[in-house]
Amino acid sequence: MIGQLIAAMLGTLAFGIVFDVPKKEYLFCAINGGLGWLTYLLLGQCGADMALASLGSALILTLTARILSAVRRCPATVFLITGIFTLVPGAGIYYTAYYALMNDLALFTIKGIETFKVAGAITLGIVFGFALPQSWFARLSSAIHDKRRIDKHVGK
Fold first, then answer.
1. What is the pTM (predicted TM-score) of this model?
2. What total number of domains does the chain contain?
Protein backbone atom coordinates (compact mmCIF):
# COMPACT_ATOMS: atom_id res chain seq x y z
CA MET A 1 0.00 0.00 0.00
CA ILE A 2 2.85 2.40 0.77
CA GLY A 3 4.32 1.79 -2.68
CA GLN A 4 0.98 2.60 -4.29
CA LEU A 5 0.66 5.74 -2.19
CA ILE A 6 4.11 6.97 -3.23
CA ALA A 7 3.37 6.13 -6.88
CA ALA A 8 0.09 8.05 -6.68
CA MET A 9 1.85 11.07 -5.20
CA LEU A 10 4.59 10.97 -7.83
CA GLY A 11 2.03 10.54 -10.62
CA THR A 12 0.07 13.49 -9.32
CA LEU A 13 3.24 15.56 -9.06
CA ALA A 14 4.22 14.67 -12.64
CA PHE A 15 0.73 15.56 -13.84
CA GLY A 16 1.03 18.90 -12.04
CA ILE A 17 4.38 19.60 -13.70
CA VAL A 18 2.98 18.80 -17.15
CA PHE A 19 0.03 21.11 -16.57
CA ASP A 20 2.19 23.95 -15.28
CA VAL A 21 0.97 24.08 -11.69
CA PRO A 22 2.82 26.77 -9.69
CA LYS A 23 5.97 25.21 -8.20
CA LYS A 24 5.07 26.28 -4.67
CA GLU A 25 1.93 24.06 -4.91
CA TYR A 26 3.66 20.85 -6.07
CA LEU A 27 3.83 19.29 -2.61
CA PHE A 28 0.20 20.09 -1.80
CA CYS A 29 -0.98 18.67 -5.12
CA ALA A 30 0.99 15.47 -4.48
CA ILE A 31 -0.44 15.18 -0.97
CA ASN A 32 -3.97 15.64 -2.30
CA GLY A 33 -3.44 12.96 -4.96
CA GLY A 34 -1.97 10.60 -2.39
CA LEU A 35 -4.87 11.24 -0.02
CA GLY A 36 -7.36 10.50 -2.79
CA TRP A 37 -5.67 7.22 -3.66
CA LEU A 38 -5.34 6.25 0.01
CA THR A 39 -9.07 6.86 0.46
CA TYR A 40 -9.78 4.71 -2.60
CA LEU A 41 -7.64 1.87 -1.27
CA LEU A 42 -9.11 2.01 2.23
CA LEU A 43 -12.69 2.05 0.94
CA GLY A 44 -11.84 -0.89 -1.31
CA GLN A 45 -10.45 -2.82 1.65
CA CYS A 46 -13.68 -2.12 3.56
CA GLY A 47 -15.64 -3.86 0.80
CA ALA A 48 -16.72 -0.92 -1.36
CA ASP A 49 -16.90 -1.57 -5.09
CA MET A 50 -14.92 0.57 -7.55
CA ALA A 51 -17.72 3.10 -8.05
CA LEU A 52 -18.36 3.67 -4.36
CA ALA A 53 -14.63 3.89 -3.61
CA SER A 54 -14.28 6.42 -6.46
CA LEU A 55 -17.20 8.46 -5.11
CA GLY A 56 -15.70 8.62 -1.62
CA SER A 57 -12.23 9.42 -2.96
CA ALA A 58 -13.49 12.17 -5.24
CA LEU A 59 -15.45 13.70 -2.37
CA ILE A 60 -12.39 13.70 -0.10
CA LEU A 61 -10.23 15.09 -2.92
CA THR A 62 -12.70 17.89 -3.59
CA LEU A 63 -13.02 18.88 0.04
CA THR A 64 -9.24 18.78 0.49
CA ALA A 65 -8.80 20.86 -2.66
CA ARG A 66 -11.25 23.45 -1.33
CA ILE A 67 -9.47 23.55 2.03
CA LEU A 68 -6.07 23.87 0.34
CA SER A 69 -7.53 26.59 -1.87
CA ALA A 70 -8.58 28.57 1.19
CA VAL A 71 -5.31 28.04 3.03
CA ARG A 72 -2.96 28.52 0.06
CA ARG A 73 -5.06 31.22 -1.68
CA CYS A 74 -4.93 29.38 -4.96
CA PRO A 75 -7.82 28.12 -7.11
CA ALA A 76 -9.25 24.77 -5.99
CA THR A 77 -8.93 23.44 -9.53
CA VAL A 78 -5.13 23.45 -9.16
CA PHE A 79 -5.41 20.82 -6.45
CA LEU A 80 -8.50 19.04 -7.74
CA ILE A 81 -7.51 18.43 -11.36
CA THR A 82 -4.07 17.14 -10.44
CA GLY A 83 -5.41 15.06 -7.55
CA ILE A 84 -8.17 13.42 -9.58
CA PHE A 85 -5.54 12.05 -11.98
CA THR A 86 -5.11 8.88 -9.93
CA LEU A 87 -8.83 8.07 -10.00
CA VAL A 88 -9.54 8.47 -13.72
CA PRO A 89 -10.55 5.04 -15.08
CA GLY A 90 -8.02 5.01 -17.91
CA ALA A 91 -7.65 1.23 -17.98
CA GLY A 92 -11.43 0.86 -18.05
CA ILE A 93 -11.68 3.19 -21.03
CA TYR A 94 -8.87 1.32 -22.79
CA TYR A 95 -10.41 -2.12 -22.23
CA THR A 96 -13.87 -0.91 -23.24
CA ALA A 97 -12.45 0.29 -26.56
CA TYR A 98 -10.35 -2.86 -26.92
CA TYR A 99 -13.32 -5.19 -26.43
CA ALA A 100 -15.36 -3.11 -28.87
CA LEU A 101 -12.63 -3.44 -31.51
CA MET A 102 -12.31 -7.17 -30.84
CA ASN A 103 -16.10 -7.47 -31.25
CA ASP A 104 -16.45 -9.05 -27.80
CA LEU A 105 -19.76 -7.43 -26.99
CA ALA A 106 -20.23 -9.16 -23.64
CA LEU A 107 -16.92 -7.90 -22.18
CA PHE A 108 -17.38 -4.55 -23.95
CA THR A 109 -20.72 -4.09 -22.18
CA ILE A 110 -19.45 -5.21 -18.77
CA LYS A 111 -16.32 -3.05 -18.89
CA GLY A 112 -18.18 -0.09 -20.42
CA ILE A 113 -20.85 -0.07 -17.70
CA GLU A 114 -18.21 -0.42 -14.97
CA THR A 115 -16.17 2.45 -16.44
CA PHE A 116 -19.27 4.62 -16.83
CA LYS A 117 -20.22 3.98 -13.17
CA VAL A 118 -16.73 4.97 -11.98
CA ALA A 119 -16.70 8.14 -14.10
CA GLY A 120 -20.17 9.06 -12.87
CA ALA A 121 -19.16 8.41 -9.26
CA ILE A 122 -16.13 10.70 -9.63
CA THR A 123 -18.40 13.39 -11.06
CA LEU A 124 -20.87 13.03 -8.20
CA GLY A 125 -18.05 13.19 -5.64
CA ILE A 126 -16.90 16.48 -7.13
CA VAL A 127 -20.46 17.85 -7.27
CA PHE A 128 -21.13 16.90 -3.64
CA GLY A 129 -17.82 18.46 -2.58
CA PHE A 130 -18.68 21.73 -4.30
CA ALA A 131 -22.22 21.70 -2.89
CA LEU A 132 -20.92 22.92 0.47
CA PRO A 133 -21.19 26.70 0.87
CA GLN A 134 -18.16 28.73 -0.20
CA SER A 135 -18.65 30.87 2.90
CA TRP A 136 -17.36 28.00 5.08
CA PHE A 137 -14.08 27.94 3.20
CA ALA A 138 -13.89 31.74 3.06
CA ARG A 139 -14.19 31.84 6.86
CA LEU A 140 -11.44 29.26 7.15
CA SER A 141 -9.21 31.34 4.88
CA SER A 142 -9.92 34.52 6.85
CA ALA A 143 -9.25 32.83 10.18
CA ILE A 144 -5.93 31.40 9.02
CA HIS A 145 -4.72 34.56 7.37
CA ASP A 146 -5.88 36.80 10.23
CA LYS A 147 -3.91 34.61 12.65
CA ARG A 148 -0.83 34.86 10.41
CA ARG A 149 -1.14 38.66 10.35
CA ILE A 150 -1.49 38.80 14.14
CA ASP A 151 1.47 36.45 14.64
CA LYS A 152 3.55 38.52 12.23
CA HIS A 153 2.56 41.76 13.97
CA VAL A 154 3.31 40.38 17.46
CA GLY A 155 6.63 39.01 16.24
CA LYS A 156 6.10 35.29 16.67
1. 0.85
2. 1
